[in-house]
Amino acid sequence: MTTLRINHRTTYSYDGPVTFGAHRLRIRPRDGHDMRILESALTVTPKASVHWEYDTFGNSVAQLTFHEKADRLVIASDLLLRRYGLDDPEARIERSAGPWPFTYEPEEAFDLSPLLHIHSPQDQPVLRQWLAEQLPELPDGSFQVLDLLSGRIHECFAYRRREESGVQSPAETLAAGSGTCRDFAYFFMEAARSLGFATRFVTGYLYDPAEAEEQNSASLSGGGATHAWADVFVPGAGWIEFDPTNQIIAGRNLVRVASTRTPEQAMPVSGSYHDGGSSFLSMEVEVSVVRSEE
Length: 294
Fold this sequence. Notes:
Low-confidence stretches: none
Structural class: alpha+beta
Number of strands: 14
Radius of gyration: 20 Å
Strand content: 35-45%
Distance between the termini: 12 Å
């Protein structure tokens, strides 16, 4: 069990007052058997009406409606939550996961069908070539296949932080030889789907003990901002988290906020504005995840 304090602040700046359209926020985690929200606060400047709802995936979404112009928009979330997890999750998963190749049970296959769909079919030839080169012989266990896939992505590509929005296609990641956590999560998803696994894109937060304790270098990649990884429905084991950026499997240091079919559906903040002659200047995102004794 780990208790974490998470502060997430996003600031948009403009060179003059603008009118803000509706905004949607996916920044609040969902309670579950492995996570409990103890405190939650959302502050928006300029003031906005806030309406909470669930999206089609069951994620909590805050709908913001603004009533005044401003030259700066600040969205600040403060969370205190408790994350539960096993000390050795991989051993438990390995014991319960089924063989590979496999066929989902009919009811499961029906429910999972949208999550089995290849999102970038045009990239499948180069992705399958990479799989053939990097994983020429696949194990006969589902968990071992996914563990090997995650490990090869972690080893083959360099992590590069990128402030621009959007996700690289698998072909773009292969050509660049590098990417962000969201690029690696998407690459993993498309590769796993080509092997018959149902996958989801997950956005959330990463607790890095080395960074939180202000050591000389962080041991994990992707801290200081929102993080991304993938969920896979493993026969016999259910939904399992795989973070190829850091080679984490079902780790308690991953705090999920939203799980979706595609990366585009999981944006933490989305919305519009009407410039009225003013121009966008910058966006800054600050995320702090520290251990709490509360």
